[in-house]
Amino acid sequence: MNKTSDFFDNLEIFILDTALKKEICNYEYCTDLFNELTIILKKIDCKDFSSRINYDYDLSNISYEIAKYYVKIANLIGSIFNTINPIKDECNLFIEDFKYLYYDVYNYSTNEYDKISEKNMIKYKDDLETFSKYFSKNEVVIKDFSDINLINCNLEINNYSLSLKDDISTIIIMKYANSIIEMISNINKYKKELNEIFIKLVFVKNDTFLIRNVNFTDLNIYINNARRILIKLYSTYNKDKKKMQDIFKMYTDIYYYKNIGCV
């Protein structure tokens, strides 16, 4: 293995480390990275790398072409990685503890509802059991909504029909569980599509991620496909989030009116 080969091996390790930073999705950061790579690559014999650049270019500008290649691939990997993780993390916020909605004992000293009556505590536990029943794929022992984990999501929309015997809050809880399930299912669908692109870019060897030998034409195809998937992911996510928030508002309104004695 020669020095040039060692250089590119180390460079690709650096590129992958850089790709996992949030800054890689920033235009100015990518521009600075491109300029730095260009300066370094001008000092290296890059002719062995030319097979990846499968289009006509001025050989004297090969350092520019290689720098552009690595910035593109780093930005693509980073866009995939830094998109999925924050969205999954944000979904965890949608299963929070709703216990405050059941506060129905008024504290005249603080002028607020700050305790739950025995009657409402029974209702809280019933609603918690209902949500867990429709949301969770396995039976788990839980005491609060915040104990429910996204990992235990059943990923199957619950089919239901309205009945005069159904309690309105139970129906809304079921719809709320379904809205989160639908959101997670859509995220996982697009995550799978993005992962299919990711594995075309990198592979694992000796527990280390390495960049595949991807030519420029294929790289541009992957970039266009990823852009399409990301646009669809975000637009669908925002619609799902809005739907879920509207259902949750219905849920909070019911308990607000019940607690002030209007229902």
Furnish the topology, listing elements before pairings.
Blueprint: H1 3-19, H2 27-41, H3 62-91, E1 105-107, E2 112-115, H4 118-135, H5 168-201, E3 202-205, E4 208-211, H6 216-259
Antiparallel strand pairs: 1-2, 3-4
Helix pairs in contact: 1-3, 2-3, 3-5, 3-6, 4-5, 5-6
Quickly count the domains.
2
As a percent range, the share of strand residues is 5-15%
What count of helical segments does DSSP give? 6
Percent helix: 55-70%
Mean pLDDT: 84
- The arrangement of helices and strands along the chain is HHHEEHHEEH
Largest sheet at a glance? 2 strands, antiparallel
Please report the total strand number as a whole number.
4
Q: Would you mind describing this structure in some detail?
A:
This protein is mainly alpha-helical and 263 residues long. The chain has two domains: 3-82 and 188-234, no CATH class; 93-185 and 242-259, no CATH class. It contains six helices and four strands, in the order H-H-H-E-E-H-H-E-E-H. The protein has helices spanning 3-19, 27-41, 62-91, 118-135, 168-201, 216-259; strands at 105-107, 112-115, 202-205, 208-211. Strand 3 (202-205) and strand 4 form a beta hairpin. The longest helix is centred in the C-terminal third of the chain and has 44 residues, at 216-259. The N and C termini lie far apart (79 Å).
